[in-house]
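name: query_chain
kind: protein
chains: 1
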Amino acid sequence: MEDAPLASLSLTHVHYNPSDPISYICAWLALVPQGLCVVYITLIWATREIEILLMFTGQMGCEALNFVLKRLIKEERPKQMYGKGYGMPSSHAQFATFFSLSLSLFLLLRHHPHPSKTHTPTTFTERFLLSILALLCATAVAGSRIYLNYHTPKQVLVGCAAGAVSAVAWFALTEGARRTGWVEWTLDTQLVRMFRMRDLVVGEDLADAGWEKWEGEKRRRMVEKRR
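structure:
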């Protein structure tokens, strides 16, 4: 019996021109969505922040929307492309746009960090510049899909539009859930409490999370050593 032919894992398989440095960079940009998923899961597990879980839920909902749209529109990818599946809209462009715009909306409209005894939080200007950087990175990811011939410009633009609409809609929905008390109610349920989920990042800088407690612990240890 002959061995079955080998196949590549399309999730991380990227075609690019090895003699073109820009093509090489674009190939790495194609892995941004996978990397962001790892970041999402790591942050959810490490911080137990409900805000990050909400953003990841919206991100997966955006991916589900892309799955449906591709099978409804059924538009092929460019002829130079060797991959499988439909191309309209670009899932990479939609994913990156949703992430960057959701992060920007959070930083500029929802995140109001308070200063502590040991830390001065990021200013609005710093958060604004970080939002611009996130949007530029999303633009680079979207542009790489055109450069590598995975999508047409129209497919990428529609993907960006779908991601932007999804991000704004999800932000509005979660803001409504916060204002009506649904987020607070969810945090008080037994299942969520079992996973120790919390809602501190809205008013606390992530860089300061646990730092004051650590400084206090260090002072306690120093006092004990002197005894």
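note: The mean pLDDT is 86.
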